[in-house]
Q: What sequence folds into this?
């Protein structure tokens, strides 16, 4: 097999540089100004009040980028608003208030911030503009339960869904139907006041549907109360796991006693637009361009790979084995999508879905000593710890053997963080201030 074109660049650097390329193409400081210029071309700047609200791991950075753009391009227009982000993901702003709150389990700070978002939106008038800055993580951060459901009830419901292994799309169907803001309800408030709504979305979900990104606060929702109840039933989440107030509200919705989430029919004659400005696939393409420059032929497997992280790791090890058996040139298998990790009762676990996938891949590829791989969350935080993910190569595999580290033991304990920490193989970036889902890359050299 021919070697990569630049032998001075080692495998670890190639893996980490590919991840950096994936993150960089979704940088809000670059893409937000580009889209604002398209949405509001010269002579068509916002008129009336310009209210900026939002939520997500990237939303504070988006707000900072918007302020910088507005200062230069809309000097006469007053900007105000409030944006919620995860603790540690703040960006500097002067006109837009940044609220840091809990994620993935909502807290009181998020609820108070969401109340402020809703209160400001209710002050809009005809001719005003609402700019919503939305990214992954917004579902938890923008938690404002409907009347009769407490923040503690929302916390318990979220925790039960997280432990059940339900994919994020199904979790969000439930949360939309418990929220005064999600499921298009934020746009509904603005529409009722005759305001224009422009939502800028950074996608962390498969399919990039505006209804799924942060549970679509400004998008028409395709799901129903019955869907939400069926999801709870699917994962056997009954009265022992879900608060009575939540179950009662969903049942009232099915009976028609509660208003549904925003639907397409509600948007007839409304000035509402959702713009997806960054996606996982664009990030995978950026990584592919980078590894191509390093002598690897990229094979993009797609950004919609889901399922149990350990099972995906085993499946991709088998795929790598197939490619190694038939190809003679260096290859890079690149994929995105959000896996899940189901934690059995009594096990705490350490790590996240990226590290869990990677350790499963590591264990399932012991017969392929030359492969190298990295898996990391583009927001910089993988699950319960402070690392973005982890990586390994052939030398790391030998180090694990010399230290008598047994990957299967760590997998059984869901302690993927502990395994890679022992090897010094954690990927630590800190918050990246963007979020386009998970990134995975496998380098194949014979």
A:
């Amino acid at each position: 097999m021919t070697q990569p074109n630049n032998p001075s660049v080692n495998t670890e650097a190639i893996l980490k540089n590919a991840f950096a390329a994936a993150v960089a193409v979704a940088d809000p400081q670059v893409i937000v100004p580009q889209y604002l210029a398209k949405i509001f071309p010269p002579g068509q700047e916002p008129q009336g009040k310009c209210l900026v609200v939002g939520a997500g791991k990237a939303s504070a950075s988006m707000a900072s980028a918007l302020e910088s753009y507005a200062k230069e391009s809309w000097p006469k227009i007053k900007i105000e608003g409030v944006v919620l982000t995860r603790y540690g993901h703040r960006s500097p702003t002067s006109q837009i208030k940044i609220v840091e709150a809990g994620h993935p389990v909502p807290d009181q700070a998020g609820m108070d911030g969401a109340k402020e978002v809703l209160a400001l939106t209710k002050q809009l008038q005809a001719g005003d503009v609402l700019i919503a800055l939305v990214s992954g993580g917004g579902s938890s951060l923008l938690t404002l339960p409907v009347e009769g459901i407490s923040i503690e009830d929302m916390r318990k419901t979220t925790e039960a869904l997280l432990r059940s292994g339900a994919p994020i799309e199904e979790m969000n169907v439930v949360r939309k139907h418990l929220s005064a803001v999600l499921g298009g309800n934020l746009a509904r408030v603005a529409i009722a006041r005759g305001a224009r709504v422009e939502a800028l979305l950074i996608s962390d979900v498969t399919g990039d549907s505006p209804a799924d990104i942060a549970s679509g606060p400004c998008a028409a929702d395709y799901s129903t109360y019955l869907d939400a109840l069926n999801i709870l039933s699917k994962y056997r989440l009954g009265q022992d796991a879900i608060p009575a107030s939540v179950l009662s509200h969903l049942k009232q919705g099915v009976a028609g006693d509660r208003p549904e989430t925003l639907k397409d029919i509600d948007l007839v004659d409304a000035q509402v637009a959702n713009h997806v400005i960054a996606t996982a696939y664009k990030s995978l393409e950026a990584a592919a361009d980078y590894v191509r420059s390093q002598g690897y032929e990229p094979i993009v497997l797609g950004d919609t790979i889901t399922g149990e992280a350990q099972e995906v790791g085993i499946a991709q090890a088998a795929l790598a084995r197939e490619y190694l058996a038939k190809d003679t040139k260096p290859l890079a298998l690149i994929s995105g999508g959000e896996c899940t990790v189901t934690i059995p009762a009594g096990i705490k676990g350490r790590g996240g879905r990226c590290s869990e996938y990677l350790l499963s891949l590591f264990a399932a590829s012991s017969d392929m000593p030359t492969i190298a791989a990295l898996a990391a969350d583009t927001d910089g935080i993988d699950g319960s710890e402070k690392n973005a993910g982890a990586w390994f190569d052939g030398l790391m595999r030998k180090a694990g053997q010399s230290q008598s580290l047994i990957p299967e033991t760590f997998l059984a304990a869901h302690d993927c963080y502990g395994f890679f920490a022992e090897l010094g193989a954690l990927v630590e970036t800190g918050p990246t201030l963007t979020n386009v889902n998970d990134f995975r890359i496998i380098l194949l050299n014979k």
Q: What stands out?
A: The longest strand covers residues 79-86. The first helix runs from residue 11 to 24.
